[in-house]
């Protein structure tokens, strides 16, 4: 048996946490021979901590052989102590009438503190994934505050958008989703994101050739993927949770699997026209477990370049809004 790894999850008593923790503890994220110690972080209000205790009781009741122990805490210094993976799910939701700038700043403060706590406490090999919105910018803030870890260790999740895009293409072409490949998300996890359909394939044939309906690809397809989160809130009365947890399992699994090519928001070095140092969704190829390289050289036509310019402008605007949180 391997020695256990420590995995921190913030917002552990929230909706996504409720789907996610069971999949980690059952071995779906790190493998069925990898014991885990879960370090669950919630904010110090009675309701959240009490709910977290209930979730921990349910985890106990699953009798997962791989779940070695749990730490429940409100203290980031305790929660991030020696962690190998930090999954930052918790954030402050947008309240009624709240401006986006206010949301960015309120959440930014959380990620300043968490970035510093990870810097001081996490294991040398720690990898961080940010899910809490606005995920790309929160990730940029956390990485900026965490000087000890290389910024490439900090990624944000756009995998749910990739999975959504693959499902929409499969539906349109009347094929199984496993027949869809190479659909990657560029830019922000927001409605401006660009699912680069021209490079996607269905049974190894280019998607534009299989679907043939270019207006649908440029219009309804991009819009449906970009606004899928809002459609789910409208239908369910709550935001995506199980699908988000599932996407995080995919994100981490693929980051641990050399050779996998998948969409991850990472620090831009200028590829595809993104500003340097914003965190942008890009296709990456996993090298060694936890390490990756951005896949460069994909041709972008005028439409794609314009979509990338729009989502890049949004990321740059977000960075300007939180500039005092960047060191
Ligand atoms: P919930 O509101 O159900 O849960 C969030 C939890 O985080 C709450 O229990 C809250 O007490 C806790 N929390 C807040 N601040 C915290 C802090 N500083 N430290 C520790 N815990 C803290 O939200 P949920 O539906 O679970 O969504 C979590 C986040 O994921 C939201 O920001 C949401 O917008 C974001 N999402 C991101 C997605 C992505 O693809 N990147 C997709 C799904 C989701 O919308």
Account of the protein in words:
The protein has 327 residues and is an alpha/beta fold. The chain has 2 domains: 5-156, NAD(P)-binding Rossmann-like Domain (Rossmann fold, 3-Layer(aba) Sandwich), CATH 3.40.50.720; 159-321, Lactate dehydrogenase/glycoside hydrolase, family 4, C-terminal (L-2-Hydroxyisocaproate Dehydrogenase, Chain A, domain 2). 43% of the residues lie in helices and 18% in strands. It contains 11 helices and 14 strands. The protein has a 6-stranded parallel sheet with strand order 3-2-1-4-5-6, with helices on both faces. The protein has a 3-stranded antiparallel sheet with strand order 7-10-11. Strands 12-13-14 form a 3-stranded antiparallel sheet. The mean pLDDT is 96. The chain binds ligand NAX. The site of ligand NAX has 29 residues, from helix 1.
Topology:
Blueprint: E1 5-10, H1 15-25, E2 36-41, H2 46-62, E3 67-73, H3 76-79, E4 85-88, H4 100-121, E5 127-130, H5 135-145, E6 154-156, H6 159-173, E7 180-181, E8 185-186, E9 194-195, E10 201-202, E11 205-206, H7 207-211, H8 214-226, H9 228-236, H10 242-255, E12 261-267, E13 279-286, E14 292-294, H11 302-321
Parallel strand pairs: 1-2, 1-4, 2-3, 4-5, 5-6
Antiparallel strand pairs: 7-10, 8-9, 10-11, 12-13, 13-14
The structure holds ligand NAX.
